[in-house]
Write a structure and sequence with these properties.
0% of the residues lie in helices and 52% in strands. The protein has no helices and 9 strands. It starts with 8 loop residues before the first strand and ends with a strand.
Length: 133
């Protein structure tokens, strides 16, 4: 009988800075030593994003972006998922099938960016449930 490989689900979270209208979320987790701008996917592994939660004081657009080579001077980021908080409140998105990101060479990574309408910089928060297998 074959063995099922399972990773451990961990939570990453971050927030907007409240003073500008776009940027990259500094991600935190209880398994990180400090905040990070992106999460690198180990060679031969997969990152599975099982859920997303967004909350805030106003309209905010969060994007999950992926790059094949985070070691480049200027990595090319592709948008994989977009979640929009239309107004003040909270939105939780559970995935029956997770977003799966593959680590082919170990240089792949993902990050979360955000955008808000001009002149409406407010605090907003994002949380992701991530599993590395």
């Amino acid at each position: 009988m074959s063995e099922v490989k399972r990773g451990e689900l961990f939570i990453v979270y971050g927030e907007t800075d409240g003073s500008s209208t776009s940027g990259t979320v500094s991600l935190n987790s209880d398994i990180f030593y400090s905040s990070v701008q992106y999460i690198r996917i180990p060679k031969g592994c997969k990152a599975k994003i099982w859920f997303q939660k967004v909350a805030g004081e106003g309209e905010t657009l969060f994007k999950i972006e992926y790059t094949y080579d985070v070691t480049e001077d200027t990595p090319t980021w592709s948008t994989l998922a977009v979640e929009k908080l239309a107004s003040k409140g909270e939105l939780a998105i559970d995935k029956r099938k997770p977003i799966i990101l593959r680590g082919f060479s170990g240089t792949e990574a993902f990050r979360v960016t955000w955008e808000q309408p001009s002149g409406s910089a407010t605090k907003a928060y994002v949380e992701l449930g991530v599993e590395i297998v």
